[in-house]
Design a protein that fits this description.
three-stranded antiparallel sheet; Rossmann fold; alpha/beta; binds zinc ion; 2 domains; 258 residues; NAD-dep_sirtuin_deacylases; histone deacetylase activity, NAD-dependent; binds nicotinamide-adenine-dinucleotide; 11 helices; metal ion binding
Length: 258
Amino acid sequence: MDLGELERAAAWINRANSVVAFTGAGISVESGIPDFRSPGGLWSKFNPDVYCDFQTFKAKPKLFWEMAREMQATIARAQPNPAHITLVEMEKQNLVSCVITQNIDNLHQQAGSTSVFELHGNAATSSCIMCHEQVPTPEAIGQLQGQDSKVPKCKICDGVMKMDVILFGEALTNSILEGAMTAAMTADVMLVVGTSLTVSPANEVVSACRRRNGKVIIVDPDHSVKPQGDLLLCGQAGVVLPQLLQACFAKRNVSTTS
Ligand SMILES: NC(=O)c1ccc[n+]([C@@H]2O[C@H](COP(=O)([O-])OP(=O)(O)OC[C@H]3O[C@@H](n4cnc5c(N)ncnc54)[C@H](O)[C@@H]3O)[C@@H](O)[C@H]2O)c1
Ligand SMILES: [Zn+2]
């Protein structure tokens, strides 16, 4: 990684009134949860365009639960990595005001981030599509054992249960999207970590920040995301974010002593 770029990013963060982090699947790759783009793992078995699609869920919920069962097992094994932990430290140091995430794995909250906008929901719970009765997802998955239909059903009304995540083709929760957009529009800096920025409307938080002249710092090992930001810190989030925090501390000390 270019050390000059690291210093430039640290200077922007130290100078900003509000820095918002925007994260995607890439931040959880080092925790053992595969993203959509890398070969291998869960998503080579379950094409997300099919298994994470709302129309497919409505027509064949059994397919969704086949994938959800394996995804739940992967998420249950995962622990926050140094990237999640650094964002918590940045919040404590008043260097980051909130996290907007596309992830459904709960790892930001598990690490200790207190202000998180989950644009795509959270896999930890599941709800009935008819009466909205909510249960922990492991309880819904527990129902699949030895059951013929292979779809968990609501114990109140017998409706089909769905994990509390937003699928492709499904609307986002308005209040959460609005909160995230407000944070993005008032941010001087957006720290974009581990997202291909291809999923809409989530990716609109980045354009909202840029429209108000906010700077966009991208952390990603893939150069192809670079044009969508002002600066790319190329590398794995679990390595780059701790280095970025150290650079912020170093720059802060220099400016307070000089
Ligand atoms: N952990 C999860 O909750 C999870 C996992 C898979 C997909 N999803 C969801 O599916 C959609 C996919 O869009 P997306 O843009 O988030 O993911 P994506 O798979 O389209 O893109 C992931 C990005 O992360 C980068 N990346 C890979 N390893 C990285 C690392 N170690 N450090 C930093 N960056 C790394 C990749 O180069 C890529 O640019 C989103 O809604 C996403 O949240 C969530
Ligand atoms: Zn119900």
